[in-house]
Write a structure and sequence with these properties.
- The protein is an alpha/beta fold and 330 residues long.
- It has helices at residues 11-22, 61-67, 73-83, 102-114, 138-153, 167-179, 190-200, 218-230, 248-257, 278-287, 309-312, and strands spanning 4-8, 26-36, 43-52, 127-131, 157-162, 184-187, 205-210, 236-243, 263-269, 290-295, 304-306.
- It contains eleven helices and eleven strands.
- Helix 3 (73-83) crosses helix 4, helix 7 (190-200) runs parallel beside helix 8 and helix 9 runs parallel beside helix 10 (278-287).
- Bound molecules: guanosine-5'-triphosphate and magnesium ion.
- Guanosine-5'-triphosphate is lined by residues 132, 134-140, 169, 211-212, 269-270, 272-273, 295-298, 303.
Length: 330
């Protein structure tokens, strides 16, 4: 074996130099740190002694192909479920032949995810009460929704703020309504809501902004219940507002908390803050609620759209097909 030596200011730079010249074949045998020069200008130095080993050859293309895992449709389906935060148990619902191509697996999965999903394409009722946890995006979304109905469907819309406890929250809705010229009515008690009823009769839709509540907040829940007793039942929609990043279990708790059977649709907010939508699809599948709108950012009115499959499918991950395969242009 042949030994070589090389000297530099320190060990690292000596090794770097050796590797620059001989590549990864360098193996250091010994190292010696010392100082050199006169007493007035003494400098640190390091000498390494090294030898070279044979570098393993790069595998050729043919060998690489052979080393890859063989394609398996069932494994591919599992990887899609995993990447999209969908439950692995969903795979049991598919009878896949191991030779099914990727595109076939993707089409089957999209069909399964969307065939029973309900979309609420119309807002039919007059009073639209957005309920949901604090900070989920109720106020922002209802302003967006009111603007959407006004500009896309020519509806006459207003906002009713029913925020009994938080003085600051009224400021936010006041400012938004002023900026977007939305008529705003304010009530701090159910009696006040009742007395506003005649003034609200001229509007097609009245979006009701409620205080957010935590699931443990009994006080706020009672206010919400009281409010719902003064709004005409047949003309009122209770819309659950949920955060796109929330876990399925938490979403199902919110669904129960905010009156499962009395809820009739869902608004999903903050889609821009998550990269997977499997949790939302699973929640919609389990709750059977119809998806009404989706919000994907803070900008009003831009970051908002009517919910439909073509908005959600492009958000599925690892698909070899793009959305146009599922929604060809007419
Ligand atoms: N990134 C992102 N932020 C959002 C979205 N929707 C709302 N927000 C932000 O979330 C924060 C809370 O929004 P609000 O509309 O005040 O939420 P809320 O549910 O009315 O809150 P409470 O009245 O306190 O219960 C604000 O900073 C919004 O700008 C969204 O789709 N994406
Ligand atoms: Mg609010």
């Amino acid at each position: 074996m042949e030994f070589l030596t090389l000297e530099s200011t320190d060990y690292e730079s000596a090794l770097r130099q050796a590797r620059r010249e001989y590549g990864n074949a360098v193996r250091v045998h010994t190292r010696k740190d010392f100082s050199k020069g006169s007493a007035l200008s003494r400098k640190q130095a390091c000498r390494i002694t090294f030898y070279l080993v044979a570098e393993s050859p790069m595998p050729n293309e043919e060998e690489e192909v052979q080393q890859q895992e063989p394609y398996d449709a069932v494994a591919y389906l599992q990887s899609l479920l995993l990447a999209n935060d969908l439950p692995p148990s969903l795979a049991e619902e598919f009878a896949l032949a191991s030779g099914s191509e990727k595109a076939e697996v993707e089409i089957l999965l999209v069909r399964r995810l969307f065939e029973e999903l309900a979309f609420a394409d119309q807002v039919a009722r007059k009073f639209l009460v957005l309920v949901g946890l604090a900070g989920v995006g109720k106020t922002t979304s209802l302003v967006k929704a009111a603007l959407f109905l006004r500009s896309h469907q020519g509806r006459k819309v207003a906002v009713l703020s029913f925020d009994v406890h938080r003085i600051g929250a009224v400021q936010q809705v006041r400012e938004l309504c002023r900026n977007f010229s939305l008529p705003l009515f304010e009530a701090d008690s159910v009696q006040a809501v009742q007395s506003l009823m005649p003034s609200l009769s001229e509007f097609d839709h009245v979006f009701v902004d409620t205080s957010g509540s935590s699931i443990k907040d009994e006080f706020l829940r009672q206010d919400l219940q009281a409010l719902l007793t003064v709004l005409p039942l047949e003309q009122t929609s209770r819309i659950l507002t949920i955060n796109a990043s929330a876990k399925v279990g938490d979403l199902l708790s919110q669904y129960e908390e905010f009156g499962s059977h009395a809820l009739d649709s869902v608004i999903v907010t903050k889609l821009d803050e998550t990269s997977t939508i499997g949790n939302i699809l699973t929640f919609l599948d389990k709750s059977k609620l119809a998806l009404l709108y989706v919000a994907d950012g803070q900008e009003i009115p831009e970051d908002f759209s009517q919910a439909e499959a073509s908005v959600l499918v492009p958000r599925l991950k690892l698909f070899s097909l793009d959305g146009s395969h599922f929604f060809p242009s007419p």
